């Protein structure tokens, strides 16, 4: 079993990731939370937590960790401090801790933030974080979903290095894709976009690696 740190564990998608990891025969989740009050929801299910604030020093959070999923976000409030610089701090910590893989939850449009209108600052932050990870020499997977919905997941997606049209995808299927991307035989040093689709998640990921 590999220990997987989930940055952003308290978020809507983060909680789904932690649940999937907790059900996995391959991974053990370590939920990174920012507030003491967020620990109980995980600890009642015997899930280990670690305190970490992306605006502070987080080097301690990667102790005894094998891989990381970065699913943290500021909800548009502190895009530079959290979505960009917080992600960079996690990349630095992962490098220092010699982690085996870094899976980044990014966003469609992060390639061209200048064209994004209202989301420009957010996508610029995601873009900068993605570039920093690519340049880190860590083994990585950068997953860029379309607009997130709370619909029930289907276990099927559409995936490509670049998808021509934007669209939606359920948080369930995004979480599944991120967890699948952790595996050693899944994507290596790849960036890909995902939307709802007709291909089983494992097969869709294999097609982009």
UniProtKB/TrEMBL annotation:
<dbReference type="Pfam" id="PF13460">
    <property type="entry name" value="NAD_binding_10"/>
</dbReference>
<dbReference type="InterPro" id="IPR016040">
    <property type="entry name" value="NAD(P)-bd_dom"/>
</dbReference>
<dbReference type="InterPro" id="IPR036291">
    <property type="entry name" value="NAD(P)-bd_dom_sf"/>
</dbReference>
<feature type="domain" description="NAD(P)-binding">
    <location>
        <begin position="8"/>
        <end position="184"/>
    </location>
</feature>
<protein>
    <submittedName>
        <fullName>SDR family oxidoreductase</fullName>
    </submittedName>
</protein>
């Amino acid at each position: 079993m590999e220990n997987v740190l989930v940055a952003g564990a308290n978020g809507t998608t983060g909680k789904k990731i932690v649940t999937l990891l907790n059900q996995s025969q391959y991974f053990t989740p370590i939920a990174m939370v920012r507030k003491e009050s967020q620990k109980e929801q995980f600890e009642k299910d015997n899930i280990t937590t670690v305190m970490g604030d992306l605006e502070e020093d987080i080097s301690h959070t990667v102790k005894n960790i094998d891989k990381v999923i970065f699913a943290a976000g500021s909800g548009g409030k502190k895009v530079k401090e959290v979505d960009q610089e917080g992600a960079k701090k996690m990349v630095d910590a992962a490098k220092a801790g010699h982690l085996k893989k870094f899976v980044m939850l990014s966003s469609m449009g992060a390639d061209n933030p200048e064209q994004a209108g209202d989301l420009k600052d957010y996508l610029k932050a995601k873009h900068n974080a993605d570039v920093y990870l690519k340049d880190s020499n860590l083994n990585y997977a950068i997953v860029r979903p379309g607009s997130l919905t709370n619909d029930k997941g289907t276990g099927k997606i559409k995936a490509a290095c670049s998808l021509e049209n934007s669209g939606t995808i359920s948080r369930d299927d995004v979480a599944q894709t991120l967890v699948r991307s952790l595996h050693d035989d899944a994507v290596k040093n790849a960036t890909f976009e995902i939307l709802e689709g007709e291909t089983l998640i494992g097969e869709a990921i294999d097609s982009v690696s």
